[in-house]
Amino acid sequence: MSLFSRGINSSATPRLTLAQQEERLAYRLLAVPVTVVVLLVILPLLWNIFLSFQELRLIELQKLSLWAAEFTTRNYEKVVGARGFITLLRTTLIYSLFGTILPLLLGLTAAVLARDAFPGRGVFRSILLFPYIAPIVATVFVWRMMFNAQFGIVNEWASMLGYPRLSYFSQRYVDLHLFGTTLKWPLALSMVIIFSGWRYFPFSFLFYLARLQALPEDLYEAAKVDGATLTQRFWYITLPQLRVVTATLVLLRFIWTFNKFDDVFLLTGGAAGTEVITVKIYDWLFGRADVGAAAALSIVLAIILAVLLFIYFRYFFVEEEV
Q1: Model pTM score
Q2: CA atoms of 265 and 282, how far apart (whole Å)
Q3: What pLDDT, in 10s, does the model give residues 293-311?
Q4: 239 and 230 Cβ atoms separated by less than 8 Å
Q5: Hey, is 164 helix, strand or coil?
Q6: N or C: fewer beta carbons within 10 Å in the chain?
Q7: If you average pLDDT over residues 210-226, what whole number do you get?
């Protein structure tokens, strides 16, 4: 090859600048996560939206043709207009709200107790993590045995104290007598929420403990010098420093609890007033073999969650000040 032709080729492919090389590297690095998101999130979402507009039974799914499909909104009318949908939505919101608040309160309490040094602190912290790392099937089995109406240890203790036996996970209401009035307390739903608080508080505990250990001791020493009590130090120093962590935990726990299925399904199967939207989706799909209705209800679930998250980000979310 002549010198002249080599010069032409070299001028046709100029050397990339450092900025251009970094730009190409960035695109290459983003290619893998973008592909994963498209394959595992975007395409299943589009497929689910497509199914939600089809009157389709589970046995007909393998014969579905994309080109001969007929679209209808009857699935949305069926699930939203079904009897008990408002009750279903209310139960889901109550479970999500208290299933978010209770783990945070328990996690904060545990973090405050485990923050300062004392003999056996490492063992104490390890024990606190047990509910979160234990298999869900095993923990549900233990809880159902503990609160069994016939031979559960909780009912055995209650009967020794003169209290009646209760079927905690299959009894919808229990009468509470307060100040001369009788209240119907949702027993099964309360037990599911308590189980959620017990199982997931270690996640909040780890977040709160990490933030508490990062707080400067100078703030507490100055407050002690000024005569602040323990309660005042907690209220005016500790809690304001935990605002950002709390905002993050509320967001994560609400999303996870709102989409939670296995806890409720394994504990009660959705019976006794504990049926949430995720359990209802399972019932539409496998109990009634209605793919279209199950897909439509899952889209409704996503829309409701998106609206709630928009409200949270718009009015309640707290960002860290730099």
Answers
A1: 0.86
A2: 9
A3: 999 999 999 999 999 999 9
A4: no
A5: coil
A6: C
A7: 86
Q: Which two tokens stand for residue 65?
A: 């043709």
Q: What is the DSSP track for 72-134? A: -SHHHHHHHSSTTHHHHHHHHHHHHHHHHHHHHHHHHHHHHHHHS--TTHHHHHHHHTHHHHS
The yes-or-no verdict on residue 273 having pLDDT over 60 is yes
What is the C-alpha to C-alpha distance for residues 255 and 309, in angstroms, rounded to an integer? 8
Element (H, E) at 188: helix 187-214
Q: Which of 265, 249, 300, 259 is nearest to 111 (CA)?
A: 249
* CB contact at 8 A, 80 and 280: no
Q: Report the C-alpha gap between 265 and 278 in whole angstroms.
A: 9
Start-to-end CA span in the chain (Å)? 61
What are the boundaries of each domain within the chain? 3-44, 74-315
Which of 253-262, 283-292, 308-317 has the weakest average pLDDT? 308-317
- Please give the C-alpha separations between residue 86 and each of 143, 183, 260, 268, 298, in angstroms, as whole numbers: 29, 22, 19, 20, 16
> 74-315 architecture in CATH?
Orthogonal Bundle (1.10)
CA dihedral 305, 311, 313, 316 (to 10 degrees): -120
Cα 49 to Cα 302: distance, rounded to the nearest angstrom: 11
Dist. CA 196–CA 267, nearest whole Å: 11
If you average pLDDT over residues 262-268, what whole number do you get?
Answer: 93
Distance (Å) of CA 115 to CA 197, 213, 221, 230: 20, 7, 16, 15
Angle of the 187-214 helix axis to the 121-128 helix axis, nearest 10: 140
